[in-house]
Amino acid sequence: MGLTLRNVMKLGKFNECEVIAGHKGLSRVVERVTIMEVPEIVQWLKNKELILTSLFAIKDDYGAQSKLIQELYAADASALAIKPFQFMDKIPDAIIDHANELDFPIIFIPDHVKYLDILYPVMHQIFNDKVVLQEDVEHASTILREISLNNQGVDVFAENLEYLIKNDITIESEFPYIRSTISETKVTPLSNDEIYELSVLQRPLQINREYDDKTVACIVSPIIVDGDYYGNITSWSINNEHLSSDLVILEEASTLLSLEFLKLKVKHDVAQQYENDFMRELLFSQNIRERSILEWGEKYNITKDTSYICMLFSAGFTDSQNKDYEKLKDDKINAIVKKMLPDALAGYIRNGICVITPASGDNNLNHVFQELYDRIQQFIGSDYTLFLGVGRQETGPQGIQKSFQQADQALYLLETINHSSGMIYYDDLGVYRLINLLRDSKELRDFYNEKMAGLLNNDKKNELFHTIRTYFHHNEILKTTAESLYIHVNTLKYRLKKIEEITGCDLKTTEGKMNLFLSLKIHDIMTRE
């Protein structure tokens, strides 16, 4: 951006000069012109300066000539234009070779071209460019502010921004309630590292992005709301190279869009509160009035003939049993749900997220649920473990309550049954479903005490308890069980005999095995409480 050396060399008699080295550096920006006749001036250079010189002071010192190129390159000078002294018929090879190594432009000034023939037109153009830049920015700011104040929407905002910058503009949002202006199939999303950098710097960045399978130079300006990254405006240099004014205009545009995003966020938060209230009525009403629920639920696509599935999410610290009730209170998690299940209701219920989604009647939803679980787990990070209970497919408002209760029970028992993942379906609970329904029953406790009390009281080190649990876990295979316990098979047989004596359950009979197996399951529920 700014005036490049390539464009500057089209001005006045500068176009009669010749680039003799560092041709790859013609995209360097020129912001000022300086005449240098002694090398010591390098220490006072700013940057982006076009240096005019005759090299008279160091015409015979080849070491100083090579050093000068290195110092100018280090000082971020734009180029060195040389008008050879009358006793120097050509520019020294040492300068040319070193400049080519650094891609630092060296320009030959013919004898008939004076310094003023270069200095005046270049400085005049730089001054005019700055004046035009300020005018462009003020004009663009006025237009964008009017659009923002008149609430004309994100699409109109993007169209006018394209007109002002003369390049393609896309507006991307992290949230489904703020619509992006481009299909994701055309644009490769920003990486997590790029989003983090934008969030920290909170100003436009120049990066390369993929657009229609092509790498394109871009300016990406973050949209920040309440200190958080909500999306970005990207200007794609497909039609024209970016100008200095584009950075300033995009920064102004992102500030205005932050206000627009904030308005949409407030509107969404109000709508989400209504959705949460409706979900609580739907899930917890003791005497559910199907008619009133259906009338209220028209906007949420709740009907008496549709089948639904409920899901309940909670999160806890990975290295402890403690729950983190705040971790899932994040709009971005709700956004992930809505993106994958656009017809679903989602709200914060019972210190977690409840999702009610229409059922498709096939197993495809299982894959969607697994992907949804994986995405939310990835979002909250490895320091937390995500738990998900999934209810059965049930019909109508009353069916939703039933599916919710099933999901709640599945989530409650998830840790109890030591499931291999953090996600479980109600149908996978097995016998735990029955035991959990009877967990407050005196008969259940009496049965448990009859079978397990003696074993636990006579097994201070839990050796026998662990043995019988491992025995059932390995489907009663003696060799595998013994190997798992690191004991001899005869030792295992001795322990099993002792367990039979204490509990009165004969492990050679189906009834005896069933009684002990059920007692272990009841133990899991009892100790869970």
Automatic annotation (TrEMBL):
Domain Purine catabolism PurC-like, first and last residues per copy: 8-126
Domain CdaR GGDEF-like: 290-411
Signal peptide residues on this chain, from the entry's feature table: none
Domain PucR C-terminal helix-turn-helix: 464-522
Natural source organism: Lentibacillus amyloliquefaciens
InterPro entries, per database record: CdaR-like_regulators, CdaR_GGDEF, PucR_C-HTH_dom, PucR_C-HTH_sf, PucR_dom
Similarity annotation: Belongs to the CdaR family.
Pfam families xref list: GGDEF_2, HTH_30, PucR
Name of the protein this chain belongs to: PucR family transcriptional regulator
